[in-house]
């Protein structure tokens, strides 16, 4: 069922008696109601006493990770700290051997069953390490209560042997057997398993003659139907708990739906499209989550491209499908993309994270951002906020070009929060909350300002200069 998103312009028209001001002094304008008593020493509630049942996923790689052959070991050393921070899933890069061998990031899959066990493409280990090291990583994650998500590339294959393809009238690299890019001997393939062939002329254009044809029974059997299919081998033998489906524009939604019905687990699709209607249609067709590119692009537009926070009030997937929207501010593709409209500037990253970690949706942290010394402590605090008091109905209280204020109204026993973003100087604003006669503080530590709500819940809050604050009640 779709959740109704309360449109902010309804509130900006009524304003609920709200007022806003630039505030260089650090104190609210005393001429505005309510007049708060002087700030007092903050006495925070213990956020650890609250658990809203949500979590956060870590994208545990970036493009061309280093050191080669040691990545699984490096991640194994980090999972304890990630679990303590509140991470409940890690998304790994494609784990199988690719055509580029020890240099492959896995998106050129050759042998789905070679996870660093067979010498082919001039290496035994993958870029990330050996099968034993992958097993150790998954075991370490599971011992910390963290699920492990496999990146699955189903559109295309690379690294096979050359054979004559009568439907291309040329040779194609579509022969996969023990001597040609498939040393495991599992899921051997020929040109008949790829587009075009005797049953289909469709070719997505990704790789000529190397796009898998999912209408072929042999392909279905080996990818997800057989007891030893890729899907069931990864789940039952390797221990993966879910799936990130790469480049789903290259094949029909029914493929993912059938896969999920066969093996289950968590599923999220990479459907690179900023139109929320397109993403929501895919959710409805497959039943799985999608990466919420609509939110990613609204954040980029609001914080970078147009410098206008009203873009954060426009349509996004999390508004209608909060349980299926996997939100993010960066990934391995956006960070290596040189087009400025496909990435959020570093100076705006933390405001973007503050948005996704306080709003509905399932947030993802990008590995390189988390490893940034300037970000990690702040991200840990936002993860804690996400997993505890980021709950309840969403109400946008105010939005203009340089201010955005959102209220999560909480639930019985959980106070919820206020998010205040400012992109142009220090601001103060008077808003209505659900907190009656409560003193509030910023739980990010970006401002020491505290305030007292009236009996009806009205309060004046502050945002730091070009930054964010997350308010909730004090003891």
TrEMBL record:
Chain residue ranges for the region called Disordered: 21-43
Domain spans labelled Glycosyl hydrolase family 13 catalytic: 55-383
EC main group: hydrolase
Residues where Ca(2+) 3 binds: 402
Essential cofactor(s): Ca(2+)
Active-site feature positions: 246 (nucleophile), 270 (proton donor)
EC number, as in UniProt: 3.2.1.1
Lineage: Bacteria, Pseudomonadati, Bacteroidota, Flavobacteriia, Flavobacteriales
List of residues binding Ca(2+) 1: 155, 211
Official protein name in the record: Alpha-amylase
InterPro entries listed in its UniProt record: A-amylase_thermo, Alpha-amylase_C_pro, Alpha_amylase, GH, GH13_cat_dom, Glyco_hydro_b
Record-level Gene Ontology MF annotations: alpha-amylase activity; calcium ion binding
């Amino acid at each position: 069922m779709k959740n109704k998103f309360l449109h902010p312009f309804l509130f900006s028209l009524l304003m609920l008696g709200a007022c806003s001001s630039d505030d260089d002094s650090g104190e609210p304008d005393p001429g505005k109601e309510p007049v708060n008593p002087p700030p007092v020493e903050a006495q925070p509630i213990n956020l650890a006493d609250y658990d809203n049942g949500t979590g956060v996923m870590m994208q545990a790689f970036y493009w061309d990770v280093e050191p080669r052959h040691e990545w699984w070991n490096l991640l194994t050393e980090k999972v304890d700290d990630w679990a303590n921070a509140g991470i409940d899933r890690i998304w790994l890069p494609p784990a199988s051997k690719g055509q580029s061998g020890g240099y492959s990031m896995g998106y050129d899959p050759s042998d789905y069953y070679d996870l660093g066990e067979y010498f082919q493409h001039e290496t035994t280990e993958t870029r990330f390490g050996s099968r034993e090291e992958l097993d150790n990583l998954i075991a370490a994650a599971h011992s910390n209560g963290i699920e492990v998500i496999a990146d699955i590339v189903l559109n295309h294959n690379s690294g096979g042997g050359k054979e004559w393809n009568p439907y291309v009238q040329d040779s194609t690299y579509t022969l996969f057997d023990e001597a040609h890019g498939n040393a495991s001997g599992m899921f051997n393939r020929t040109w008949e398993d790829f587009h075009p062939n005797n049953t289909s002329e469709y070719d997505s254009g990704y790789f000529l003659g190397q796009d898998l044809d999912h209408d072929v029974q042999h392909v279905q059997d080996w990818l997800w139907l057989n007891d030893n299919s890729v899907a069931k081998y990864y789940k039952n033998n390797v221990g993966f708990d879910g799936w990130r489906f790469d480049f789903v524009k290259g094949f029909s939604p029914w493929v993912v739906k059938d896969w999920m019905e066969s093996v289950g687990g968590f599923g999220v699709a990479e459907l690179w499209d900023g139109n929320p209607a397109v993403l929501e249609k895919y959710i409805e067709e497959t039943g799985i989550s999608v990466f919420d590119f609509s939110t990613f692009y609204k954040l980029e537009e609001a914080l970078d491209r147009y410098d206008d926070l009203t873009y954060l009030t426009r349509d996004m997937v999390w508004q209608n499908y909060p349980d299926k929207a996997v939100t993010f501010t960066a990934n391995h593709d956006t960070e290596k993309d040189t087009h400025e409209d496909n990435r959020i500037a570093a100076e705006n990253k933390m405001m973007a994270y503050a948005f996704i970690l306080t709003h509905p949706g399932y947030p993802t942290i990008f590995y390189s951002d988390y490893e940034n010394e300037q970000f990690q402590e702040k991200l840990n605090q936002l993860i804690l906020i996400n997993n505890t008091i980021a709950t309840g109905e969403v109400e946008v209280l105010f939005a203009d070009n340089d201010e955005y204020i959102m209220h999560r109204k909480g639930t019985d026993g959980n106070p919820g929060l206020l998010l205040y973003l400012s992109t142009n100087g220090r601001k103060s604003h008077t808003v209505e909350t659900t907190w009656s006669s409560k003193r509030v503080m910023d739980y990010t530590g970006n401002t020491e300002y505290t305030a007292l709500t009236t009996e009806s819940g009205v309060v004046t809050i502050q945002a730091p200069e070009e930054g964010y604050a997350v308010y909730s009640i004090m003891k």
